[in-house]
Amino acid sequence: MKQIYSSKMKPLGGYLELQLEKGQDYYPLLLKLNTGRNAFEYILKVKRYTSIYLPYFTCEVLLEPLRKLGIQYQFYTINEKMDPVLDFEVGPTECFLYTNYFGLKQDTILRLSKQFKNLIVDNSQAFFSEPVDGLDTFYSCRKFFGVPDGAYLNTDSLVRLKLERDLSCDRFSHLIKNIDVGIENGYQDYIENNIVLSNNPIKKMSALSHRILSGIDYKECKYRRNSNFMYLHDFLVNYNDYAFDASSVNGPMAYPLLISSTLVRKKLLEKRIYVATYWPNVLDWTTKKMYENYLTTHLLALPIDHRYTHADMKRILNVLKQLL
Ligand SMILES: Cc1ncc(COP(=O)(O)O)c(C=O)c1O
């Protein structure tokens, strides 16, 4: 973008804009920032932490702010419930990050929030899990909705950083190509637009992402996620090596199916059922004997989001039934 006209005067006439529903975003009272990793950086900056405990089982982009700010980090392991193995103590200037895996770990977060003072919650996989009062919690919007970027931050800090507003229009192409030419033909743009999110300064959420997020029917999106998730769970519970409490699902990110076979991912792909790996970097950070390594290679995050109905879930189950 070459020039932004900043006059406060509203333009009248001229060509029309992309037409989006006018509503309200889901977390109007939280700080609106450009990316999840930068929301994480915001917390680290205002709290002035000197070091952090991070799970081995997470995304490598979380290291970006740590490198930027020169913060020491140490990895910790998780157990078969994906709860942290607490064999360390968190000092007064240190903090501890926990990820709300697949949006299914709110109970663990409530428990940890009573146990630790300097807890940071990564709700990038748990958009619909409300932040616990006073607990530093961040969200990444692009994992749940068709936006190029955008993040929310809940913090008890009163310090506010002065920030410019981000611009998202140059990393929007995969979203519109998905509609016009299909998901496969937009995939390269998705990769490239992911790359340009790296190593950017903390900025306010772009007007474009905010406008899109303000037009979403969140009730419907959450309903569809819960309904699709339970549809899969009814059948897959008997095959799933990851045991979790499904009684309080709250708009989860995906259905985590843990199985011993590593061949299923490819078979699903052949049927145009795309299952992301969470997270390839974990294979570099861990040894083959570690549970996190096993999770990365064996856990299938099945899509259950608002785009889909039970008929789509049935298609996934029909493929799985031949393989399990
Ligand atoms: C668990 C987790 N936390 C944080 C992030 C960072 O979010 P963003 O891409 O919005 O910076 C990601 C992925 O990118 C993630 O998978």
From TrEMBL:
Alphabetized InterPro entries for the sequence: PyrdxlP-dep_Trfase (IPR015424)
Name by which UniProt lists this protein: DegT/DnrJ/EryC1/StrS aminotransferase family protein
